[in-house]
Amino acid sequence: MTTAEVRDPELPGRLLITERDALVPLLRARPDDDFALATAACPGWTVRDVLAHCSSALMRVVESRYEKGVFSPEANDRDIAERADWTNAQVVDELERGMTEAGPVIAKAGGKLDMVALGEWVHAGDVRDTFGEPGAYAGPGLPDALTLLVRITREKAHVPLHADLDDVDEPQRLGDPTAARPPARYIGGAATLVRLYAGRSVKGADFELVGVEPPELNIFG
Fold this sequence. Notes:
Blueprint (H helix, E strand, L loop, with lengths): L10 H18 L18 H17 L9 H10 L5 H21 L5 H18 L10 H14 L5 E5 L6 E3 L9 E5 L1 H9 L9 E3 L3 H4 L4
Parallel strand pairs: 1-3
Antiparallel strand pairs: 1-2, 3-4
Helix pairs in contact: 1-4, 1-5, 2-3, 2-4, 2-5, 5-6, 6-7
């Protein structure tokens, strides 16, 4: 079995800590006006809204609060509204705490919460992209994010895809390896592959995708 097929329970938490150390200092250095910027990846949400969603989701994990409808669009909007009176610094403080404390809880959950960590990492990319930061969906967390993406797509029996990545030595095989349809093919960078699976814009990216349409790859719906 490959490393992507064997679950490393510490990987999601490691991804969150890595992203915490990169994102939180960036956020603390930005002026308040930047938190009001609209995000292209999450229509209708500002940077602050994305961060409030991320921090509240992580604290739900930390505190094991999973009421009916949790993580639905309606629940996400309520979580954001509950933080409307908070300062931007308070939102960042909660985010930092969640990224620090959620890992051990996710590790013990047997895999069912692993996608939360991947989603948080993608949302961090959304924020960096809005700020115009280079390598929005790359950085030190990318190798762990890619490993997690490969395993999650296999467990979800997603569309099979063979990826030859410009910046990774070994080909990556995502999705259901037993699917009747032949694997789609991807050639390009790992960060662009993440964008495709996250349903984010790939405008201007240099890649080849054969045998599947980009919307079919989106794992976040």
